[in-house]
Write a structure and sequence with these properties.
This protein is an all-alpha fold and 95 residues long. It has one domain (12-94). It has helices at residues 22-33, 38-43, 57-70, 80-90.
Length: 95
């Protein structure tokens, strides 16, 4: 079993801190600081990434038309005063 090395803090002000293993921090910082090149971006398998928006132009247009139809629907909206009242009833500590 490999023994993990944890950083030590000599000063009193750090006495309550929790530390991650050194190699974990080093790898995380190293990975985040190196930007991908254009070639590496081209090699990514983009089909494995989740899509949060529309996948096609037709789907985007359909979402826009649905949103535009709902703009004037009073059941979809509340006034700011009504929202405040609802929040204050549910979360009394917000007052």
């Amino acid at each position: 079993m490999e023994e993990k090395e944890y950083p030590t803090f000599e000063e009193e002000e750090f006495s309550g801190m929790v530390a991650e293993p050194v190699e974990t921090l080093t790898m995380a910082n190293n990975h985040q600081s190196v930007p991908l090149t254009h070639d590496e971006l081209d090699d990514l398998d983009w089909d494995n990434y989740p899509v949060f928006g529309p996948k096609t132009l037709d789907e985007a247009i359909a979402r826009i038309e649905k949103a535009e139809a709902e703009i004037n629907d009073p059941t979809k909206w509340v006034t700011s005063e009504e929202l405040d009242r609802i929040l204050f009833e549910k979360y009394t500590w917000l007052r």
